């Protein structure tokens, strides 16, 4: 028997799920693939003392930045903290805890959490501040660092399409961390741009099976922001050549 997981809006989707001190995974890479409406609903809820696992913490005035600015985040587990002045200021002042994790390691820790693998070894971070206090072991003459899985109370992810049962399809670079996060939390809520009828998604094209997804919302609108605009002048047009007669 199929189950319709579509909720009226982001506030309804988060109802009964939130509590202070919880751990939340939030998909996205830069400004691509962010569950922006669910993040705004988290802000409205006032839930606080959060540990947030995400590649970065939004951009000025957008995404997870809004929760940071509202004092709702206690700790970030991230791989990139540059170009976010608020993030840097809060960390340097001691008002924000940070677990800095190399990007590939972050992705694998999340994937491991979803796959039920409590620990794995990687060469990334050996001999650096990232490896301080972590066990190491030698394999084939090389030193490897032991990293542990990441799991969460809630994962909020952004997809392109969903059907009523929560099967998800992501679009291009907006896929990023979203599929792994969808598998690694007790509750997963997805926001999507389109909801299609049951049976309309090609089974071979589904990226996240609905078994991992508890609730879905269709976002009313999405901003296609550009994080950093770079332009160049067009080259001068070549001078016309005389035709031979």
From TrEMBL:
Transferase found in the keyword field: yes
GO molecular function: CoA-transferase activity
Pfam families per the UniProt record, alphabetical: CoA_trans (PF01144)
Keywords attached to this entry: Transferase
The UniProt record lists the keyword Transferase: yes
Highest taxon of source: Bacteria
PANTHER family, sorted: ACETATE COA-TRANSFERASE SUBUNIT ALPHA, KETOACID-COENZYME A TRANSFERASE
Protein's name according to its UniProt entry: CoA transferase subunit A
């Amino acid at each position: 028997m199929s189950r319709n997981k579509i909720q009226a809006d982001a506030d309804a989707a988060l109802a009964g799920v939130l509590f202070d001190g919880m751990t939340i995974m939030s998909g996205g890479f830069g400004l691509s693939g962010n569950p922006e409406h669910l993040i705004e609903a988290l802000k409205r809820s006032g839930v606080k003392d959060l540990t947030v696992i995400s590649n970065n913490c939004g951009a000025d005035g957008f995404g997870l930045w809004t929760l940071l600015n509202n004092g709702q985040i206690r700790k970030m587990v991230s791989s990139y903290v540059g170009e976010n002045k608020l993030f840097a200021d809060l960390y340097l002042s001691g008002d924000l805890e940070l677990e800095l994790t190399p990007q590939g390691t972050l992705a694998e820790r999340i994937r491991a959490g979803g796959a039920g693998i409590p620990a794995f070894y990687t060469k990334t971070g050996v001999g650096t501040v990232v490896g301080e206090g972590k066990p190491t072991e030698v394999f084939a003459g090389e030193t490897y660092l032991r990293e542990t899985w990441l799991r969460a109370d809630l994962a909020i992810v952004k997809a392109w399409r969903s059907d009523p049962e929560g099967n998800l399809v992501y679009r291009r670079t907006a896929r990023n961390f979203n599929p792994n996060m969808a598998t690694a939390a007790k509750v997963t809520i997805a926001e999507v741009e389109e909801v299609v009828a049951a049976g309309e998604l090609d089974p071979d094209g589904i990226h996240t099976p609905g078994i991992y997804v508890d609730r879905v919302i269709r976002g009313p609108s999405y901003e296609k922001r550009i994080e950093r605009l770079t332009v160049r002048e067009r080259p001068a047009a070549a001078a016309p050549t005389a035709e031979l007669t």
